[in-house]
Amino acid sequence: MSRQEVRETRRGARSQRTRTSSRLRGWGHHHRAMCLDSARRLIRYPVGSLLTMLAIAIALVLPAALWLTLDSARLLDAELNESATLTAYLASDVDEAQAVRVNEALQAHSAVAATRLITAAEGMAEFQQALGLTDALSRLDDNPLPASVVVTPRDASPEAVSVLAGELEAVTGVADVRLDLAWLERLRRLAELGQRLTLALGVLFGLGVLLIVGNTVRLAVESRRQEIEVVTLIGATHAFVRRPFLYSGAWYGLGGGLLAWGLLTVGGEWLATPVATLAESYGARYSLPRLDAMGSAVLLFSSTLLGLLGAWIAVGRHLAEIRPR
Amino acid sequence: MIAFEHVGKRYGGRFEALANIDFRVRRGEMVFLTGHSGAGKSSLLRLIMRLERPSRGRVLVAGHDIGRLHASQVPFYRRQIGVVFQDHQLLFDRTIYANVALPLEIQGVEPREAARRVRAALDKVGLLHREKALPIELSGGEQQRVGIARAVVNKPALLLADEPTGNLDPQLSADIMQLFEDFNRIGTTVMVASHDLALIARLRHRVLRLREGRLVADEEAA
């Protein structure tokens, strides 16, 4: 290759590069322009756009609220798991010194995390405090309560706990082991059902959002049919034609997501007081769960994504139909 | 530039729009395509624009068999030819400037570079002062000139026009044809479909005459 040729090849390569980078800038510019243009089109018809977004928001609120409730139930579940303990009641003829030894024996068991001995006297004091029956109980000559040991298992799963209960019962000096886990199990089953229900509803309502956006974008495509035909005639790619509609789909999704977020927040505020009062009347402290930053981000991201996807499907279907005449 | 090799086009298996068309157009030539309506002028142009594929034979443009272009390549092929339509095909919700800039926007040309080229094209058709107007505010002849500016804004090597003077009076038609001759003079290959025989006769270019889908005459420039 002669020096002349090399120089020309280099120049060619350079001009190719500048052309590519300027193309890229032009492409970026078109993205920005379409992003703004589709937003402007939405604002030009505020009522229609708002109605579409509201429909999306309503479709999003139900699964989001369920998910929140379930999330808080899961927290509750974890707390309950931690508090899962067994109570070993000692035989009534076990005296205090023996009780201490039994406690030590239980503590030594490999599946036991911690124990707490409640002597007969302590048990009586607790009982009196809880019932407020000081007078009636003080009339008793004898303390009828046995000493007991509260055992915290290492593994709080229902199977492990019931195995442990059997083993503890065999320890000398232990008369009875009580565990009441059936309700815990039931609660867990309920939570599982709720989870599946939320998932099913989420999928259904997600499909609803796709349909809402798809239908809106289909109308937009129809109203801009001539424009699509013209740009196709002068060399627009499918991506170019699709772009403004994808942006408007994403805007619809984002708007719907924001509205859903607002509805959840306002609804949460509105329900907070009655829920707290209700919980208090049961002697519990429970406040309605709220969307944190992460939850809000997930909500907005998925609503935008659903909008984009709905637009993609609608435009794809209609691009195939619209052929320049 | 353009070569038709024994091209036939049938629609729906029965109606024969074009039969055994065979001709070549050299680079830089200006050619008129004429014949009654329904003679196949539009079908022929649609084949060159790759809106249709030939049922038989081959259509070559700049050496490429465009019937064999993959669908994803077609947009890039169309960017290389400028097309002027009888009904202008302008977008009525955009300014003249935006209409002319459309092909550059599609190709991703930077706004500054695009502005320069749009102004040059509008200047060429004498409508630079109307760039902010909407198409509806322009007369038929002016609208057609906007359509021409849009067709030439990215300096295509091939310019096609389908009845560009269809709805215009003789003086405006002559002006439009003058514009095509100007573009041809700077090296653009131009093909104009028209049934305005009087005008064509005056302009002294090569004429391809179609009748019922057949090429019945190929008259070299006088």
Automatic annotation (TrEMBL), chain A:
Q: Which residues form a coiled coil?
A: none
Q: Where is the composition biased (Basic residues)?
A: 12-23
Basic and acidic residues bias spans: 1-11
FtsX extracellular domain: residues covered: 86-177
- Record keywords: Cell cycle, Cell division, Cell inner membrane, Cell membrane, Membrane, Transmembrane, Transmembrane helix
| Places the protein is found | Cell inner membrane
Any one Gene Ontology BP term: cell division
* InterPro entries cross-referenced by the UniProt entry: ABC3_permease_C (IPR003838), FtsX (IPR004513), FtsX_ECD (IPR040690), FtsX_proteobact-type (IPR047590)
Describe its membrane topology. Multi-pass membrane protein
Give the span(s) annotated as Disordered: 1-23
Q: Is tRNA processing a UniProt keyword of this protein?
A: no
tRNA processing listed as a keyword: no
- How is the quaternary structure described? Forms a membrane-associated complex with FtsE.
Give the record's family classification. Belongs to the ABC-4 integral membrane protein family. FtsX subfamily.
What's this protein's name?
Answer: Cell division protein FtsX
Recorded source organism is: Litchfieldella qijiaojingensis
Q: What is the lineage of its organism?
A: Bacteria, Pseudomonadati, Pseudomonadota, Gammaproteobacteria, Oceanospirillales
* Gene from which this protein is expressed: ftsX
UniProtKB/TrEMBL annotation, chain B:
| Main subcellular location of this protein, as a coarse class | membrane
Cell cycle among the record's keywords?
yes
- Listed GO biological process terms: cell division
Which cellular compartments is it found in? Cell inner membrane; Cell membrane
Q: Name one Pfam family in it.
A: ABC_tran
Q: Which InterPro entries match?
A: AAA+_ATPase (IPR003593), ABC_transporter-like_ATP-bd (IPR003439), ABC_transporter-like_CS (IPR017871), ABC_transpr_LolD-like (IPR015854), Cell_div_FtsE (IPR005286), P-loop_NTPase (IPR027417)
What GO molecular functions are on record for this protein?
ATP binding
Q: Tell me its family.
A: Belongs to the ABC transporter superfamily.
Q: What is this protein called?
A: Cell division ATP-binding protein FtsE
